[in-house]
Amino acid sequence: MKVLITGGSGLLGQYLNIFLSKKFEILSLYLNNSGNCIEYNSKKVDICNYRKIFDVISSFKPQIIVHTAAYSKPEIVEKLSFYDVYKINVEATKYLAELSELNNAKIIFTSTDLVYDGVQGSMIPESGKINPISVYAKTKFLAEQIIRKTTDNYIILRTSLLYGLALNNTSNYFTYIFNNLQSGKPVRLFYDQYRTPLSLINASILIEDLILKDVKSETINFGGLQRVSRLELAQILCNVGGFDKSLLEKISMDDVPEVIKVPDVSLDTKKLQAYTSLQKTIEESIEEIIKYGKN
Ligand SMILES: NC(=O)c1ccc[n+]([C@@H]2O[C@H](COP(=O)([O-])OP(=O)(O)OC[C@H]3O[C@@H](n4cnc5c(N)ncnc54)[C@H](OP(=O)(O)O)[C@@H]3O)[C@@H](O)[C@H]2O)c1
């Protein structure tokens, strides 16, 4: 099976390159950074260049398009022009959905847990109230709606916080925590923002499984099994990795003014579990991350 990956140089994209290439023939797209794409079949393409995207899809003929390319960092997105974000997060997604439909391919789109408002309680099901408060989440929800209108052959993954070691040009908070703890430096962590984080390795394996199971026409909460704050996630990292817990400094979201305040977007992932049994616990995932990092 042929799988086209957009955002192949991103945090998730580079893990998808590693895992999806084991089972499928992949073509991975990047723009400014090549990351590990150069180790795989890859191309430098701006997803807003519709002529080029059309050519790439017409010649590669993928059965699956895993669309992860985006302006993905909510706090950065708030500082950009709405149109610039819309062009990538919504317009380019619309075009990719149209091309998927035209080419009988499935589009798998990484949306976000932040489409929920974060104040309706814990473990929100897919039927929960949609109320994105950031520009980032608003554009992701617009893209979801367009995909559902354009094609039946889609999987929309409302993705939770992704953790694991960031490869090459990419970054995430978990890697910052991990590096600090490893070198004995303190880290400041929110105790009052809850998610159901999912490891990058587990996310890639779950996407592979959803492809193999030919899931379609589904919007799925894509998170881990446990509801935790970043502080609790780091405490588990200390337990599993043998790091010093006294380096963890507890802070509130309110201590960092620029942070978008979303107290609880933990996800009910029963729908995901109905399709796959490959979700792992945080403890299992961290063991895997540490083992993977050593190899
Ligand atoms: N990370 C998380 O915790 C998280 C949580 C929920 C949802 N998500 C969603 O999951 C997806 C992956 O997130 P991520 O953290 O892996 O993102 P990321 O590290 O910021 O990567 C973004 C990717 O998009 C590519 N890109 C951006 N603009 C492009 C353009 N015009 N043409 C072609 N490529 C372009 C970048 O390419 P270059 O670097 O080569 O320029 C990069 O590969 C995103 O859709 C994000 O919204 C992520």
3D structure, described in words:
With 295 residues, the protein is an alpha/beta fold. The chain has a domain at 2-162 and 199-223: 3-Layer(aba) Sandwich (Rossmann fold). Helix content is 40%, strand content 18%. The chain has ten helices and 13 strands. It has helices spanning 11-23, 50-60, 74-77, 82-102, 135-150, 173-182, 200-212, 230-241, 270-275, 282-294; strands spanning 2-6, 25-30, 42-44, 64-67, 106-112, 154-159, 162-163, 187-190, 194-195, 198-199, 218-222, 228-229, 248-251. The chain has a seven-stranded parallel β-sheet with strand order 3-2-1-4-5-6-11, with helices on both faces. Strands 7-10 form a two-stranded parallel sheet. Strand 1, helix 1 (11-23) and strand 2 (25-30) form a beta-alpha-beta unit. Helix 2 runs parallel beside helix 4 and helix 8 (230-241) crosses helix 10 (282-294). It is globular. The chain binds NADP nicotinamide-adenine-dinucleotide phosphate. NADP nicotinamide-adenine-dinucleotide phosphate binds next to helix 1, strand 2 and strand 5.
Write a concise keyword list for the protein shown above.
binds NADP nicotinamide-adenine-dinucleotide phosphate, Rossmann fold, two-stranded parallel sheet, 295 residues, 10 helices, alpha/beta
